[in-house]
Amino acid sequence: MRKMRKTLIILLAFALVFSLAGCGGGENGGEVSEDTINIGALYNLTGGQASLDQPSYNGFKLAAEEINANGGINGKMINVVSYDGKTEQTTVANNAKKMIDVDNCIVVAGLSDSNYALAAGNICQEKGIPFITSGATLPSLPDQVGDFAFLAPFGDNIQAYACADYAINDLGLKKCYLLIDQSMEFTKALAHFFQERYLELGGEIVLTDNYMNKDPDFSAQIDRFLADKGGAEILFISGVPDDAGVVVKQFRDKGVTLPIISGDGFDTPLLIEIAGDSANDTYVGTHASLENQDPMVLAFIDAYTEAYGVPPENAFAGLGYDTMYLIADALSRASDINDPASIRDAIAETANLKGVTGTVTYEDGSHVPTKSVTINKAEDGKFVFMKEVFLK
Q1: Are 41 and 47 in contact (CB under 8 A)?
Q2: Cα–Cα distance between 143 and 366 in angstroms, integer?
Q3: Residues facing 360 on adjacent strands
Q4: H-helix or E-strand containing 117?
Q5: Which domains does the chain have, with CATH numbers?
Q6: Measured between alpha carbons, how far is 317 from 314 in angstroms, rounded to an integer?
Q7: What is d(CA 61, CA 291) in angstroms, rounded to the nearest whole number?
Q8: Predicted confidence (pLDDT) per residue in 338-365, tens digit
Q9: How far apart (Å, rounded) are the C-alpha atoms in residues 161 and 391?
Q10: Can you tell me the distance from the alpha carbon of 314 to that of 316, in angstroms, rounded to the nearest whole number?
């Protein structure tokens, strides 16, 4: 059954013409040959972003292996060149430079947070090499970086709007407490867009508070909330993976039982691992549900489980997987893969490319695709699918 599903996913997803086999991986350099395409996989495999980036990197490698097992790209083998960004912006930038200058990567991809994607993207833009972030969702990132930068996921505005819609239209909760990590571009943008949509829908932000990433103690914020809840019915916490479980557990431990909602930064095993049962009634706007019965999703789950011994940890595994196929599709159409501008143009022309995390089309010159948002709920030690939200 697994073999059948793995074959099915190739047929369903991408009608690419392949002709070579083999794949590079790990922390490796790239050697140039006529039969090899070097593609950079830049991920934070250690540090605070690892719970998102390691699954994404695994998905990226898995897709490359599948493509090569089916013949490669137009007669060429994919060699995945990878380095650990260590959740350090300087390291990320230096590794992006190395991938281009030393390893001759023709495309660089990866990363799940905008701070690090900006660091890598700016290097790629300077050197005229296409960069696709597999998980960072800052909608202004391509505008900030330049015409060689693309997002594979939706933007923060879309996921924040979906969370606001779900809180008001589905949960019926119109008074919200907003807690914002002020250290990240992602978290500040997510909070901005959530508040914008929530107010537009008739909701009220009754109290706003702030913190900084990796603050070990949220007592001051929680005490301020308990002193005057302002009638809050739900909490929106704009945070990143390494804070998700900690902040939720501390609120619950002090008796806060209200529903909590957040964006894809909370789509991490750490939420449930750290918070345990306290994570219950936490809603997450993210890129996919692993409960989806779509044959492509089922085939991906089987292939990932067979390759790594565990099911995909979160939707970021699917994003990495889809990003590799996005690159392969563009390279198969590019008029000249030795010309970075040709690759950039082929990426920009991507339309109706179905993946595990949705369908990618870049419309009207935008380098951010419009995709649906999945709402999952933490419940009894797992993420349970609630709804798919479609926004424009």
Answers
A1: no
A2: 9
A3: 353
A4: helix 114-127
A5: 2-154+291-361 (3.40.50.2300), 157-286+375-389 (3.40.50.2300)
A6: 6
A7: 22
A8: 999 999 999 999 999 999 999 999 999 9
A9: 8
A10: 5
Number of helices followed by number of strands (H, E) in the chain: 13, 15
The Cα–Cα gap between 175 and 177 comes to 7
d(CA 69, CA 250): 47
- Given a contact cutoff of 8 angstroms between Cβ atoms, the answer to whether 285 and 379 are in contact is no
pLDDT tens per residue across span 287-318? 999 888 899 999 999 999 999 999 999 999 99
pLDDT in tens, 12-54: 444 333 333 333 344 555 444 679 999 999 999 999 999 999 9
Hey, what are 76's tokens?
């060429």
Residue with tokens 């691992």: 273
| In the predicted structure, residue 81 carries a pLDDT above the cut 70 | yes
DSSP string, 28-91: ------TTEEEEEEEE--SSTTHHHHHHHHHHHHHHHHHHHHTB-BTTBEEEEEEEE-TT-HHH
The DSSP-derived string for 68-81 is HHTB-BTTBEEEEE
Which backbone phi and psi does 211 adopt, to 5 degrees? Answer: -155, 180
